[in-house]
Amino acid sequence: MKARIKWVENVCFMGESGSGHTVVMDGPEDHGGRNVGLRPMETLLIGMGGCASFDVISILKKSRQNVTDCVADIEAERSDEVPAVFTKIHLNFKVTGNNLKESQVKRAVELSAEKYCSASIMLGKAGVEITHSYEMVEA
């Protein structure tokens, strides 16, 4: 896996993935940015949420659950000291579908957290306290 980060100006950078997709990262105006893109730490958090969501949906589809929507809300806390690393991250999955089995939703979230989500497992090994929850909504 490869990526390239290109400096644009001030604190604005363009990130390009090995698959050719790009993302703009920028800082707030009071730090020399123009606020035209995600902060790098926001990008990391969104990447982790995307990784976990990919797992949850994939596991639910394989278990033949009729999922119609899935939203992961993420709340994170960071250290007040430099480096301002993540100290706690909580993911809440809101899974919508028809006749979902709670045991299958719970299992999908647990498997993502404990076995499949490379991003959250990596951050957990680095000392970030990561927790998960879920809720189900009938479509």
From TrEMBL:
<dbReference type="InterPro" id="IPR036102">
    <property type="entry name" value="OsmC/Ohrsf"/>
</dbReference>
<dbReference type="InterPro" id="IPR003718">
    <property type="entry name" value="OsmC/Ohr_fam"/>
</dbReference>
<dbReference type="InterPro" id="IPR015946">
    <property type="entry name" value="KH_dom-like_a/b"/>
</dbReference>
<protein>
    <submittedName>
        <fullName>OsmC family protein</fullName>
    </submittedName>
</protein>
<dbReference type="Pfam" id="PF02566">
    <property type="entry name" value="OsmC"/>
</dbReference>
